[in-house]
Design brief:
Elements lengths: L12 H9 L4 H9 L5 H7 L5 H13 L3 E6 L5 E6 L1 H4 L2 H13 L1 H15 L3 H4 L3
Antiparallel strand pairs: 1-2
């Protein structure tokens, strides 16, 4: 397993939250587990861009941070399910609020993200069209 070489700075609540939720897919994974998609294959169908390896790494990190619990059922083939802990459940209202903010500002966010991507790709002439 990957171990960070630099000790994280944990001086305030934002540092702590960032350390626990840092990862491209963690917020979406937590939301989908909350919605009842408990198996890794279900989560991968809900987030098709995630690789199985990244999904497993982020689930393991969230398990280590006590946001989810992993249950392995003794059947063949093994069945694995993830559920939110009580601690993980406390994030759901925050994730919902972030989602609402994104919905309210989706046009502006989409525009600035596409503009930034066009500039980063070296196509500034396309940035004005977005």
């Amino acid at each position: 397993m990957y171990v960070k070489k630099i000790v994280p700075t944990l001086n305030c609540g934002l540092d702590l939250v960032g350390e626990v939720l840092y990862g491209k897919w963690k917020i979406r994974i937590l939301w989908f587990i909350h919605q009842g998609h408990l198996r890794p294959s279900e989560l991968q169908r809900k987030i098709p861009d995630i690789t199985r390896r990244v999904l497993n790494v982020q689930l393991k990190e969230m398990e280590d941070h006590e946001l989810v619990t992993k249950t392995i059922y003794p059947v063949m083939p093994p069945k694995v399910e993830y559920t939110l802990t009580d601690f993980g459940q406390t994030l759901i209202p925050l994730i919902g609020a972030i989602g609402l903010w994104g919905d309210e500002h989706q046009d502006r966010l989409r525009r600035v993200i596409l503009k930034h991507n066009a500039i980063a790709a070296g196509k500034p002439e396309n940035a004005e069209l977005v």
